[in-house]
Specification:
Layout (H helix, E strand, L loop, with lengths): L33 H4 L14 H15 L5 H13 L6 H15 L1
């Protein structure tokens, strides 16, 4: 990699130098930059630990992602029953299911 940047267009702006040394640091007082001072042969290892709840949620998420969204066998059986006219709706059971569903929304 080149030590100088030669492709900067100054556009006649005073104080801009297109041949600036990239590796040079503006360090007038002689002190080390902050990032050099704190980086002295020490290595840190980041760790992550999950709570029991997080582990359970992760397991549940995996189980749900493995479960198909639609039970294709049941859908096909219902389509066949409707097509041949043998599918019967129990109005009482349907009404009770609707009431139960509405109660869960509250």
């Amino acid at each position: 990699m080149s030590d100088t940047i030669n492709n900067i267009k100054t556009g006649n702006q005073p104080g801009l130098n297109s041949n600036r040394n990239v590796n040079a640091r503006d360090n007038r007082d002689g002190a080390k930059p902050a990032d050099v001072q704190s980086n002295t042969n020490t290595s840190r290892t980041d760790t992550v630990s999950l709570t029991d709840t997080a582990t359970q949620l992760q397991s549940l998420q995996q189980t749900l992602s493995d479960t198909p969204v639609v039970n294709n066998e049941r859908v096909e059986a219902l389509r066949a029953a409707i097509a041949e006219g043998s599918y019967q709706v129990d109005a009482t059971e349907l009404a009770q299911n609707m009431i139960n569903f509405e109660a869960q929304l509250r």
